[in-house]
Model the fold of this input.
Amino acid sequence: MAQETHSGAFATSRMLPYRSESVFAAFETPEMLSTWWGPNGFTNTFELFEFREGGRWHFIMHGPDGSNYVNESKFIELIAPSRIVIQHLSQPHFVLTVTLATHEGGTELTWHQDFEDKELAVRIRHIVEPANEQNLDRLGNVLAQRG
Done:
């Protein structure tokens, strides 16, 4: 369920019936990540993917209308299998913190996105909140397909 934590941050969490190692692998494996990253209808072309602390991630998100969105990020913190922190260097600037907590029957994923420009975050809230939910839906679908 999505919730706004303050004017520039958004958070959502999801229980996934998979081990935290499997969920973490969906982030660290570029072939998997490229299939679910982004909202419904988007695809990705990864140009550079250095999944290590300080590593860079350059990719293009292709919108369902044919638009291309160039993205550049940096991996700030990677603690397998429980935490991933990504700094989005392209506009809009934000830090995404993904926390994976093991529970009986699965993993609770918490997605916390903190935008640098609080006013911008308020203006794009109507896009970000449903897009984040769609992103997690897509992650769940990829994990279900992989068993």
Observations:
- The first strand starts at residue 2 and ends at 6.
